[in-house]
Amino acid sequence: MYGLCCWSPRGVPLGGSVEILFLGLYLWWVSGNGPPRSTSNTRRSAFRCLTLSRAQWAWGLFVALLFAATIHTAIVFVFRLVPFPAEAFRRGYDISIVPSVPLRWVAIVISAASAAICEETGFRGYMQQPIEQRFGIVAGVLISSFFFTVLHLNKSWALLGMVPIVLGVGVLLGVIAWGSGSLIPGMIGHFVMDVGLFAYWWTGLIGNFTAKPISETGPDRSFLVTCVALVIIVPTLMLAIDRLRKVSTIRAAAI
After folding, report:
1. pLDDT tens digits for 22-53?
2. How many CA atoms lie within 13 A of 58 on its CB side?
3. Using CA atoms, how far apart are residues 155 and 145, in angstroms rounded to an integer?
4. Three-state secondary structure along the chain?
5. Looking at beta carbons, which pairs linking 84-92 to residues 24 or more positions away fall under 8 Å?
6. What is the pLDDT, as a whole number, of residue 255?
7. Do residues 18 and 110 touch, judged by C-beta distance below 8 A?
8. What phi-psi label fits residue 159: left (phi over 0), alpha (psi between -120 and 50 degrees) or beta?
């Protein structure tokens, strides 16, 4: 978690303000602005496209929300098969030192934004895009997803059942970046996913997962609903990414 530990006398998260400023400058630079000019075009290319058409925005937002829903549903599915290890998931994510609920939300939102912006730029932009150009989309997505997964293996919540989900996150975000020709839909989806992860699974700010594994309850109604949701959401996400790819290709041809 991108920690926010510096607070001003007025209660404004000073660390959060600094982080927002940093993210703004970071986006400005990695998208091809600023010195050195010799790397400007390389940075711009690696960051992919900054401007989207209305159709790209519409389909991109739809894809982003479907992506986040897919990942959270997959996590629920995993923890209906095995017990939810709340202690492991909460280790290192204690926000009780933050003095109020609104400021806890500020910490969560800024942490999620930091992870989404930096990881999408690094993995789906600067790593995947050059590999795509040289070796193709499959190599680009698989290699960036592998290193994305490895980066997260040191987390306390990186249990065996979570590894396929983290790898799936990397693959889906890689395909979204390729399909949209932009990092923006992936950043939004990553952000929405992480807000849910921070607020629910990692801190319990908005509640706790209390469902027991089906080894104790049997395949009850909630488990069947989760299974049906996955069967519906995943193909819908794939179709939406395909549609996003088509509208992005049409826009690229028109430019």
Report:
1. 999 999 999 999 999 999 999 999 999 878 99
2. 6
3. 16
4. CCCCCCCCCCCCCHHHHHHHHHHHHHHHHHCCCCCCHHHHHHHHHHCEECCCCHHHHHHHHHHHHHHHHHHHHHHHHHHHHCCCCHHHHHCCCCCCCCCCHHHHHHHHHHHHHHHHHHHHHHHHHHHHHHHHHHHCHHHHHHHHHHHHHHHCCCCCCCCHHHHHHHHHHHHHHHHHHHHHCECHHHHHHHHHHHHHHHHHHHCCCCCCCCCCCHHHHCCCHHHHHHHHHHHHHHHHHHHHHHHHHHHHHHHHHHC
5. 84/209, 84/211, 85/157, 85/159, 86/204, 86/208, 86/209, 88/156, 88/157, 88/159, 89/156, 89/157, 89/201, 89/202, 90/202, 90/203, 90/204, 91/156, 91/157, 92/1, 92/155, 92/156
6. 67
7. no
8. beta
Please name the amino acid found at residue 169.
V
Q: Give the residue with greater pLDDT, 95 vs 41.
A: 41
Which residue carries 């959060």 as its tokens? 16
Q: Which of 81, 72, 60 is nearest to 165 (CA)?
A: 72
Give yes or no for a contact between 10 and 19, defined as CB atoms under 8 angstroms apart. no
Would you kindly state where each structural domain of the chain is located, as residue ranges? Answer: 47-254
Predicted structure pTM score: 0.93
Judge whether 137 and 145 are in contact, CB under 8 Å: no
Here the tokens at position 174 are: 């890689």
Residue 68 near residue 192, CB atoms below 8 Å: yes
